[in-house]
Write a structure and sequence with these properties.
The chain is mainly β. The chain is about 0% helix and about 75% strand. Strands 1, 2, 3, 4 and 5 form a five-stranded antiparallel sheet that branches.
């Protein structure tokens, strides 16, 4: 017979020190005239069973003009041990160009955690923006 099992014997990947895979789906919309601001919502899910509804915000300066809406956005996190590490502000640097249909792709960092974002949308935008991307747990 096998060893007796205990409810305390099961460990998640984060408890055992391993990295977990987390993904985010999101939507984001906003305006920019020299200063970019956008907000939206999404859901994070991790392969260890952790999930969270989130609010997302992007802010920054640079040379940018237009209105943007990202729909069906997707993000992949790397360097994560627990979903709690994902909340906060990420450093952002992006380049984008579009008329009517727009594509948005960027890599963001927050300490050891990286977030690769991609999405498609609609609107008119042109320029380069630098700033931050913030993820907060939705209430």
């Amino acid at each position: 017979m096998g060893a007796p099992t205990s409810p305390f014997a099961a460990e998640t990947k984060s408890q055992s020190g391993g990295l977990v895979e987390c993904k985010m789906t999101y939507s984001l919309s906003g305006w920019s005239v020299f200063y970019k601001t956008a907000s939206g919502s999404g859901t994070i899910s991790c392969d260890n069973g952790q999930t969270a509804k989130v609010k997302v915000r992007a802010k920054g300066g640079g040379i940018t003009f237009g209105k943007t809406e990202i729909v069906r956005g997707a993000g992949n996190f790397t360097g994560v041990r627990d979903i709690g590490e994902l909340f906060g502000s990420y450093a952002q640097a992006e380049a984008h160009a579009g008329v009517v249909k727009s594509a948005d792709a960027q890599v963001l960092t927050k300490g050891a955690v990286s977030l690769a974002l991609a999405g498609t949308g609609r609107g008119i935008d042109l320029g380069v923006a630098f700033g931050k991307f913030t993820i907060q747990r939705a209430k």
